Amino acid sequence: MDSTINHKRVTVLMSVFNGEQYLKEAIDSVLNQTYTDFELLIINDGSIDNSLAIVQSYKDSRIKLINNDQNLGLINSLNKGITLIQSDYIIRMDSDDICLPNRIEVQVNFMDANLNVGASGSHYYQLKDDKHFEIDLPMSTEEINAFLIFNCPLAHPTTIIRKQVLETYHIKYETGYLYSEDYHFWLQLSKVSQLRNLKESLIYYRMHANQITGNPAKAKERLNTVTKIRSVSLEELSLQYTVSEMHIHNLIADGLSPTNESEFSQVEPWLQKLVNAYAKRNSNTSHFNAIVYERWLRVCVNYLGSVKGISYFYKSQLRTSLKIKLKIRLHLYKVLYKSWKRK
Questions:
Q1: Buried b / exposed e along 314-342 (16+ C-beta atoms within 10 A)
Q2: Do residues 9 and 89 touch, judged by C-beta distance below 8 A?
Q3: Who's near 238: CB < 8 A, 6+ residues apart?
């Protein structure tokens, strides 16, 4: 094993910091791919556990190891890796997730056939306590661009990125967007290329206590970051908003329930304001309106309960004005049912 970067078609980029618990399973899932023309670039970001020894135990020439003298953090480590990589494609992989065996093959074939796509991800299986649930994401470029106003549309460890697009437009992960660097990264890419998600689930995305959601300080910092990113999207709609409206937008985007009647009463007017602003800037509003429809129904049910919430939703002026086709409504109901079943 050495640190010499070769020109393979694909480089799988993995940064690890104290990831000994799941690291071997993650590495094995990459090495056992049906696609073979790749290298695995592992950046050991100053780990003080057994992570380095685990990586060094492999004798596979496809593994390239870079050791950071000190912990640089995920953002700087990823940028370091991107600078070193000479491949056509960069595949992101986290040190605690699991690739399905055909992941690289499926993603390379898709990118080769869709040259206007700068990055793509996929649906995935959320893995927690030995149970897994399939998570759906917006698939088309139009859906993804609409979804960006609310949330990160691509799951970071599912993605494949065209290196040439990053070089041409000087796109990198920005340190000012800690804990949501991927959300901002996709926002930048969406302005210069198409983004897509594949329907096929290609990884097991592990949930555990060491992640950001389990750390209150990091979760607070992440909220500050996503607020900044969402603000950019809202300003691009030429939409003026108050601090209270931004709070409501975050609540809706994060799938949270209003805490009181005052908050709930602000949701429908804010969503209507969003719909009007989006329509002024976009001729095709069907995907955005479908997202608003789903978010409004979710808020009603979460706050009022299933029976009362559905009744309130169906009587609302916002629901009537969105004019969502039956086929799309049925799909949204299915998505909501799956999400509620997981709780």
A1: eebebbeebebeeeebeebeeeeeeeeee
A2: yes
A3: 277, 280, 281
Dist CA 3 CA 249 (whole Å):
45
**How far, in Å, CA of 155 to CA of 199, rounded?**
13
Joined tokens for residue 4: 């010499």
pLDDT tens for each residue of 119-132: 999 999 998 887 78
Q: What residues contact residue 114 under an 8 Å CB cut-off, 6+ apart? A: 120, 194, 196
DSSP β-ladder status, 89-92 and 160-162:
antiparallel
> ∠ CA 331-336-338 to the nearest 5 degrees?
95
Map residue 134 onto helix, strand or coil.
Answer: strand
SS3 label, residue 203: strand
**Structure token pair of residue 49:** 């556990």
**DSSP letter, residue 57:** T
Q: Model confidence over 44-82: pLDDT tens digits?
A: 999 999 999 999 999 999 999 999 999 999 999 999 999
Indicate the SS3 state at residue 239. coil
Residue 132 and residue 76: Cα distance in Å, rounded? 31
CA distances from 13 to 113, 195, 249 (A): 22, 19, 33
Element (H, E) at 282: none
pLDDT at residue 338, rounded to an integer: 66
In the chain, where the domains are located: 10-212, 237-342
Provide the residue type at 45 as one letter. D
d(CA 283, CA 315): 27
The answer to whether 89 and 12 have CB atoms below 8 angstroms apart is no
CB neighbour list of residue 260: distance below 8 Å, 6 or more residues apart? none
- Using alpha carbons, select from 35, 205, 74, 239 the residue that is nearest to residue 127: 205
CATH match of 10-212 with 3.90.550.10: yes
Q: What would the DSSP string read from start to end of 100-118?
A: -TTHHHHHHHHHHH-TTEE
